[in-house]
Amino acid sequence: MLSDLMRAFGQLSDPAARRVLWQALGLSLLTFGLLWVGATLGLSWLGEGLVGWAQARGWEGFWLETIEWIYAAAAISGVLVTTFLLFPAVAVLMMTLLLDPICEAVERRWYPQLPEGRSQPWREMLWDAARLTGVTVAVNLVALPLYLILLFFPPFNLFVFYGVNGYLLGREYFEVAGVRRLDSGEVRALRRRNRGSVFAAGVIIALLFTVPLVNLVMPIVATAFMVHRFQTLRVRERSGDGGVGL
């Protein structure tokens, strides 16, 4: 498993991986650019309303300028902080829409003997991305009360967090990697027969997703990692070896 992970990180040197990374970052910047324009217009409108409200109450001179300065500083700080907090999540979501070329690049580099895989149509990729994001958010919201209770009982809170997200990420990325070679039902059956190995790989992915900066490239690394795990488990089943190697 560790060799698969190292090969997955090595995939970042592939031109296809760099292209997906830059495309995702570019789409994220475009998204935030549009949001910044909307936020600027909206905050300007609210600022004018605040100034009008203050002037109606007879505030002028120093006090009016102070209100304007505080509002401007708060608005700019809010936009910058929100951007800082949300940009990695948006970049990861954009990257999730572009994972099929990563699967293709991994197979071309490490498994050249394989026939050409099935290309996912855009509708299916969008659905997979929405499902990955939606299921992860929904399950974590359901588990939130347990997280809060266990917050006072470390490290049990970390075990629950990484356990839940390891299961989710392992399942979803394994299926993303597998649908190029098998239909969805066969991929799920293969995952269930090897649930321990897929879960362990998912926990590793979940751990790395919590590392700053590393999390920006994790959709690429996780996809490459799971392509290797998928191929390893398929070969292992064909050879009749049911062991789980780390």
From TrEMBL:
Organism (species): Aquibaculum arenosum
Predominant location category: membrane
Membrane topology term: Multi-pass membrane protein
Domain of life: Bacteria
Record field: transmembrane: 20-46, 69-99, 132-153, 198-227
InterPro entries listed in its UniProt record: CysZ/EI24
Record's subcellular location: Membrane
Record's protein name: EI24 domain-containing protein
Keywords: Membrane, Transmembrane, Transmembrane helix
Pfam families reported for this sequence: EI24
